Amino acid sequence: MPINQPSNQIRLTNVSLVRLKKGKKRFEIACYKNKVLEYRSGIEKDLDNVLQIPNVFLSVSKGQTAPTQDLAKAFGPKTSVDDIIQEILKKGEMQVGEKERHAQAERIHNEVIDIVAGKLVDPKTKRVYTAGMIEKALEQLSAHGGQQQQEEHPKAASGTATPTAEGEEGKGKKKDMPMWTGIVTTKSAKSQALEAMKALIAWQPIPVSRARMRLRVTCPTSLLKQAVKAPAKKETTQEEGEDGEGEKAPAGTVKDRILSYIEQVETQDTEGQEWEVVGFVEPGAFKGLGEFIGGETKGRGRVEVLDMAVMHEDG
Question: In which residue ranges is the amino acid composition biased (Basic and acidic residues) (predicted)?
């Protein structure tokens, strides 16, 4: 991509423009497209490796640099050029060609589908769905997404896309339900996968739940019968399932509370002065369990992750 500078001619290749509108002006910088995302994710920290030219432009293609007075008016008179460039890099919109944009969207789309397919299961069989089935379910949500989902109960092709996370008492809270309107290229695949999972669990175009974590919890037997107070309310998240689990932790003993986090106990045993339980926990309950064990046992108890995502338990 040739760019004519005022005093000479510089030929830029593999260029990506990052644009930011500030005030009434639009400012541009010329970057190496492979480095912009690395800079935003924190992998690349050296601006010299990101920028093709360390200047701020009004138009890169015309070689028109931004006047000092325009930069001062938009970003403040004491803001350095490096700080301005960093703001444009972090907040600006990256311009790429149509083919590159399509390839990037396709890559993110595939990553999101793969992540979601690896984290959700059929709640009855505990088996994973194929990537194709997850893709179709998300297409149903995006087709019936946005304002339409907020204004009425959507009905997907299967006729099952109705909200489950809030129940009959939650009909007036549909606007709080997570929405899915499709893949975007301005967010990471990981963050979009989380949004997609929340929407799928909430709206259920196909029956889904998060794959359970398999944990081992150990605690001194001397603490098991120690009484604990029930908190006023334990915050419920979409990751905590569709049955309202985790809304309120029970009072009782330390052992009672530990078992309340475990959806399915696999083994339970006492050896010497230590009690051990192995079981399946929903990912949304893992943090609460860890905090309880750490606080209540003062570091004498442990939570060990055996499997991050259990898809199917034989038998």
Answer: 168-177
